Amino acid sequence: MIVNRECIKKIDNLINKYIKLEIKREFLHDQCESEKNIGELVYLLENALILLNSHSNKNKERALTIATIVAKLPVKNKQLKLISSIILGRLRNFKSQELVDNNNEENIISPFDMLKNNLYKRNNTIKLVNKEYLLNNFQLSFYELVKKRKVVSVSAPTSVGKSFIIKRIIIDMLLNGLNCCVYVVPTRALITEVINEIRKEIRKEINIDDLNIGFNISSSSDVTNLKKEFKTILILTQERFYQLCNNNEIKVNVLIVDEAQNVIDGKRGVLLEYSIKYAKRLWKDLKLIFISPLINNPEKFTQRFAKEDESGYLNEMKSSVRQNIIKLYKDTCGYKITINDNLVAEKVRINRSASSISGNIASVVLGFNNGQNSIIYCNTTKLAVDVCEKIFNSGNYDDSNIDVLNEFADFIEYSISKKYLLSKYIRKGIVYHYGKLPPFIRGGIEELAAQGYFKIIACTSTLLQGINLPAQNIYVYNPVKGRGKKKKDLSNLEFWNLAGRAGRMGYDFCGNIILIQNKEWNDINKYDDKSNEVQFISDQYKEIDKLKKIILHSECNDIENTEDVEDIEDGEDIDDIDDNDGINDYIVSSTIIDRINHQKLINHQVENESYNNLEDMVDKIIQGFEPPKELLIRLVGMRYSNINKLWLYLKSNDSTIEKFLLPHPFNVDKKTFLKVYTEVIDIINKYLMNENLYNQYDKDKLKFMSYSWITENKLKFILLYKVLKNSSNKEYNNKEISKEVEKQVRYLNGNIRYKLVKGFYAYGEILKEYLKITGREKLAHKIINIPMYLEIGACKNSTVELVSLGMNREFAIEVVEKFKITENNSIEQLKKLDLSKLNNNYLKGKLEEFIETIK
């Protein structure tokens, strides 16, 4: 049977009709029973059985749409549901098929269809980590490509199961001969999520005792304490991965780059690209896997990093869930509503506030909602908080009385303050999420959101960094990020990455992306085109004339490098800044590295006098660089002139060089440590950071807050120091407490966990190299890992070990203090704890989960 053009037109019209009915039923509470027609549904299903065999992706998408329409219909016709299940099975969308079957009481299927269904499942079943898995077509193709090729790049929507398959591929490769895998994530916030998921998979999927295999699983670039006989999985940011390459103390067999599209983003894009280049120079047989969402040119990565005969790519554009684009066009007394550009309602009365954007957003969410979990995209943290407040005050949401939410709220109040606003929102299943939340709160929100506990999540652009916050509905009021001078529209890639969170595979048949027209965003048709291409950020700069200009400015020490954290609205931490501040330093640095490694300075072939002059300019810099040239490679993004300045300063103080070594914070008294610590910070500020590390007002704050952070003070004493030491007896209200927490987290993440870490890392590497070439290697070994202490907020070996294994800092500090965990065999001590001594059920539950995964 052939489906002709007229038939396709009729099918599309019926699809539009039933999706409109679905939106009316769910969002407008109009049951529209009289408009349903069993004959039409049968016609759609019959044609879907034909369309799913088409070579056209569009026709397969029609088949999926028909199957999900019928699956969602509130009808008791079991035969219709059964045919929907058959269609999903033949599309190898087994998770959605399982969802249909679970909701259908009886499965009366013909022997022929049962045989075909079983055959499809058998063909898509593979053995991984000594266990059989049923995969969809994308997962199967991904697995087969990884088996055959050395360098692989895949692009696919959020909901097709990339994470599921890649974690099992990692474990499978390690069980079958490889020894070390590095998984690069774009933000620190993702580390804990990935590390815990992998540990759970290992515990769940394989019997380590039977296989006699142990696993090192860590988030640290320091591998000196790892057990060499164990298999190793490292989950690192691009910064930590570059440090791992510098250390070169372990051979990496597999490198997985998640959210690989971040090569387009400013400094971190350059750093990510050069981390990969560095790794390929170190480990010649390195297997590379790039994972991106919804880009049209995943082959860009294989072209940059591999030969054609050793690489392959996969581009999957089909989602495993149907996604509805619902547009709300503003009208005099509400909104005109369309679904996939078809009119649903001419006018829906939803009040708009004349003075409040947050009021407008809250009104739409409250007045146009299907009761399912929803994410509201907000471009600023203030807007996210205000929207939550409006929804909270609406009275539409009662306390959820869900134990895990109440326990989480209790722990927040215990760890921060009873007046912290977020805790009372959480009890109602409402939450906001942004980069300036304390890390343990962000992690808790993400975990509970992934489990579906929150009805409302108001979220900023942190959602674009691969954070796992799935929901059935995504509301978009204004698709920009940042504020003031930093404010800019989301790119097409960023928008569809955001929209991809709508609909969860195995939980939802469809997701809804709700676009709200307003005076800030009048063109809500802007993102209709889903085509997205990725380009390496370095390609925008690595042209002869541009490079010459940048290098000339660098020689005048004239590069703009503000890195003003107060101007950055969001981003996980400041190491995830998505602007181009300071990118010129990274471009100059990476150009010098290319020249040292005898590689082309620009990304296309050219031989002329102008290019030769460019090479001469770079050669002059390298020849005039007094320290070992290796430092230029190790300190990508640090100005060569600053490295040189610090080197000369150390040289001029050679006779008293030991004074530049910091003692361990717990090996000396506070006064002694702070004296040396302050002197080193001043040196870093003057010689490496262009007097940009602190200003005259916050030097003491930087010193004392960072000291409290690394010496494992509780977070509330760090963030609310001003409030707790308040001498005027002022009574702070909920909003003031929450604002103070946000302000101090911003400072902690930006000035301490980013800028100070960067400065101390460069300082330590330069000092270490100076000591080595002057014959004082024993002194070099005494250099403590202050950058790691500053990044994670701990310096006791037992606490550092627990955090590196994936435990949250606040949990690790609590358990080390409460149970007196010592530095020797802290993991074994942890396994023997009596957790009944803990009063907080949330902390107790998280520790039980953690201990279970490390047994």
TrEMBL record:
Keywords noted in UniProt: ATP-binding, Coiled coil, Helicase, Hydrolase, Nucleotide-binding
Keyword Hydrolase annotated: yes
Residue ranges the record marks as coiled coil: 4-31
Name of this chain's protein: DEAD/DEAH box helicase
Gene3D superfamilies assigned to the protein according to its UniProt record, in alphabetical order: P-loop containing nucleotide triphosphate hydrolases
Residue intervals of the Helicase C-terminal domain: 360-552
UniProt entry tagged with the keyword DNA damage: no
Residues covered by the Helicase ATP-binding domain: 143-312
Pfam families in UniProt: DEAD
One annotated GO molecular function: helicase activity
